Structure formats: structure tokens, C-alpha cells
Amino acid sequence: MSKSDDAPVVAQASARSMTGAEWSMLLVLSVLWGGSFLFNGIALKEVPVFTIVAFRLTFGALALHLVIRVSGITIPMDTRSVLGYLGMALLNGALPFSLIAYGQTLIPSGLASILNATVPIFTMLLAHFLIAGEPLTGRRVIGVLLGFAGVVVLSAERAFGGAGEWIGFLACIAAALSYALSNMVGRRLMPPGANPIALAAGQLSVGALIILPVAIVVDNPFAAPLPGLASFFALIMLALVSTATAYILFFRLLALSGATNASLVTLLIPCWSILLGTVFLGERLGLQEVGGFAVIALGLLVIDGRLVALFRRKRVPD
After folding, report:
1. Which of 11, 91, 140, 229 could form a disulfide with 182 if both were Cys (CB 3.0 to 4.6 A apart)?
2. Reported pTM
């Protein structure tokens, strides 16, 4: 993927500070996506991985198409837009959803969400090579190194265990890389100025078409017993709240503040995921997980730059 002519505009949007309204959107989005780890954890007790993802994407897309039909919104269908839907459907939907759900069968949902917090680290690295005007400055290099140091803390002694936990660990890291790649695709191929509901519907629709055949062949869901009430409720919440509603917010935030700022949502997601997992799933995270998240969070705050700038201003004498 080469740098396009409009890349400087994209870079400018990505590098600027976010407004109060954008921070509010980021907070709400973190709650919606933080809940997805809880809903996955509940549904996985009775429903296979690909069936969960297929339900999430299919019913999320149907809900958005209903909104589009009522409101008269038009979904862009030019070649660039369709390619964008395809790229986002794979990299920001079907692939990472499946990897995270699978990872949660092997590791706690809180740990999975912490690993997901590495998305801005990968986004920063990719933006350096793929988006003009977003070089790896000294501050960003320090932030990236801190982020990977946090991953090292989390992975210490895991990769050498025999319980298979490291497979879930790597699956969630791969999902984070997929999300980072999708940020690049979204900024380059999603039509500028398009309605975020239309963009979300396009992505989810294509994602459903990708994952439905996989779920039917691998899981054979029609031959399985119906899930219980708790699992069914979790699937509905995944589709309508953590997918349909969340992606409307995500595309709006991506258009307003850029790929790097939008990816900061993953810094807040673990806070909600850990809280919900502790309350509803009885999960407990140890000092290793807390320490790893603290190092990753420090790296993201250094990358963001606002905390560093505030510290420097306080040190300047009046």
C-alpha cells in the first residue's frame, strides 16, 4: 500500500488533539467494546467461536440496514468504497472477532482486552510506513518500546507453559495487529464525508458474508441445541450494542480524529472489560497482568503526548 496524495490531510487529522466531544465518544465506545469481552465470555460457554462471530456480524448488519431503510441513508457502492468494506470487514471484523473469541477460550477476558490495548502501538508503527506526515518521533519510539515492554511482562513464563495459554495470547496479539491494519485501510479507502451508519453497514454486511460460510461448515450450528437465555442475551448485546452501535461511533471518530487517536480507545477498553469480567464472570487478574497493562498504558500516554506536554508546562517557571 503506497502513500496516497491525500495522505497529508489524513496525517493532519490523525496528529491533532481531540476535542471534548471526541473524548466523550471515545469513552462511550470503550464501554461498548469493553462489554464485548464479557458477552463473548458468556456466549462461549454454549456457542462455538465462528457461530458467535457470524451472529454478531449478521444481526449487527441487519439492524443497521433497518435504520438505513427508515432514514433513507445511501450506502456508497463505488469501487473504492466496496474495497474499503472488504478490507474493513476482514481486518476490523471477521478476523479479529474470531481470533479474540478463540483466545478467550484459553485466557481470561481481562487479559484478552489488555492485549487488545496494543492496537495503537501497531497503528503507530504502520502509520510511520504507510501514512505521510506521521514519522516515528523520539517520543513515539519511546511509547512503542514501552508498549512492547508491557507485552513482554504479560508474556513472561507463558510461552513456555504446556497449558496452551500462549496460543490464546498470540491469537489476541494477532487480532490487535489486524485492527491496526484496518485503521490504515479505513483512513485510505472509506469514502470521506459518508454517513458513519452507511460505512458500518457496509463493513458488517461484507463481514457477515465472509464468516457465515465458515460458521456453517466448521460449527454446523443448525444441528446444535439452542443456547440458553444468558447466551442468547449475550449474542444480542454483541450484535446490537458492541457491534452495530459501536461501529457507528467508531467510523464517526475515525473520520473526525484519525487512526491514531481513534485507536486510543483500546487504552480504556481493558478497564471496563476487567471490571465486568470480575463482577459477572468471577475472573481475577494477578500482579503480572496489572503490571503489563500499566506499562502498556504508560507507553500509550507517551505516544499521545498530552501528558508529557502537561508535565513540561508545569516545570516551566512563571
Report:
1. 91
2. 0.84
Q: What is the DSSP letter of 93?
A: I
Three-state secondary structure call for residue 158: coil
Judge whether 149 lies within some domain.
Answer: no
Q: Which residue has the cell 458513519?
A: 196
Residue with cell 475515525: 254
Rounded CA-CA distance 130/133 in Å is 10
Domain contains 124: no
Whether 18 and 252 have beta carbons less than 8 Å apart is answered as: no
Q: Give how many domains the chain has, as a whole number.
A: 1
By residue range, what is the domain housing residue 238? 18-119+164-287
Q: Is residue 97 part of a domain?
A: yes
- Measured distance CA(119)–CA(39) in Å, rounded: 21
Angle at 242 between CA 122 and CA 169, to 5 degrees: 40
CB atoms within 10 A of CB 305: 15
The CA radius of gyration of the chain, in Å to the nearest whole number, is 19
Distances (CA, A) of 234 to 24, 36, 171, 283: 25, 9, 22, 17
Hey, what amino acid is at 113? S
10-residue averages of pLDDT along the chain (318 residues): 33 56 90 95 96 97 95 91 94 96 93 88 84 76 85 70 77 95 82 86 96 96 92 97 93 80 79 88 84 86 71 62
- The answer as to whether 300 is a domain residue is no
From residue 163, alpha-carbon distances to 110, 113, 171, 283 in Å are 18, 20, 15, 18
Dist. CA 184–CA 181, nearest whole Å: 5
- Measure the CA dihedral 39/67/257/209, to 10°: 60
- What cell numbers appear for 184 in the block? 490504515
